[in-house]
Write a structure and sequence with these properties.
Blueprint: H1 4-10, E1 36-40, E2 48-52, E3 60-64, E4 66-70, E5 76-80, E6 87-93, E7 100-104, E8 108-115, E9 121-128, E10 138-143, E11 148-154, E12 156-162, E13 169-175, E14 184-190, E15 197-198, E16 205-211, E17 214-223, E18 226-235, E19 243-244, E20 254-262, E21 268-275, E22 278-285, E23 291-293, E24 295-296, E25 299-306, E26 312-317, E27 328-333, E28 340-343, E29 347-351
Length: 353
Amino acid sequence: MVCASMRRATGIVVGLLAAVAGSAPMAQASASRAGIAYITGSATSAPNVWVANGSGGHARKLGKGDVPLLSPNGRTVAASNEASSGHALILYPASGGAAKEYFNIAQVTANALAWSPDSRYLAVALSGVNVPSLTGYGLAIIDTKTGTEKVINNGVIYGASFAPGASDELVYARASSVSGTAATNLFTVAANGTGTKQITTDRRSANPVWGKRGIAFDHEKLRPGYAPIDQIWLMQPNGSHRKQITHTNVGLLVQGLVPLAFSADGTRLAAEFEGQDTSIGYSVSILTGHSTQLKVGNLAVSAWGISRSGRSVLISVGGFMQPPNQGKIEEIPFSGGHATLLIAHGNFPSWNL
């Protein structure tokens, strides 16, 4: 299985941006809130996390880190630590000040997957450093109200997403092996780790994103000797009423579309077409199944999120497999068209608009 969270963690080949449909619009950043988080850095310097307002203005540096994930309320940014020592995950106040750190980087790497709509809980994928051992792999939840962390399931995690609303329930994909062909299914669970329910049994489901109309996810079809085929499906939170949404053509060295984030009404989806040396942004209509490749001029782009209204998609241009400062962060209409520049030098953006 290949998942959105893994592309964002490595920044090399494959791409979770958590759906933030429960967040409030934010046109400007205050002293304690942000609208966009992103990274900058050159080929010879370590990446640093920055925040700006929703238009890209009033940018300010928070500190070291990679693959930032901005909370829905704009007050906190979670980032992976790429250093060789210390803690694996950093939580920065968007206003600046002392950060909080979690997980021993000598034992695990950590990638922030999703915030709960109320910004209290953060779902984190942990990966052990001793591959192929499963030691250290699992899904952890950080409770920012109490400052505590808890591993709620062990295994290899391929995406997680919180339900819209106030339930603090989440869905995640779990495999019991690091093998790329390992059986992978979806589960729902409360943020405190109770009430786990398995909602797929096909062994080929991953990359879930929970929206108002249901859970979008990848259903994978294996092709011996070639990359598997991923198509986006939709189902109800209990696993019923499964429906295939996309029917894209998938070449032998690529995998297909990965869902990233829903609009607030659950009818529009940002997605990424992934595979070998491939990461291309798409918009997908849940109502019609139509998918649109997003471009700036003749350039393919990477998708990172969608606005609450569903009118625009957050993208990066020119940054795929390049140092972060070679990329530009822009927003583009859902159906394509003229893009608006937000950040001139940056990549791996996360927003809450």
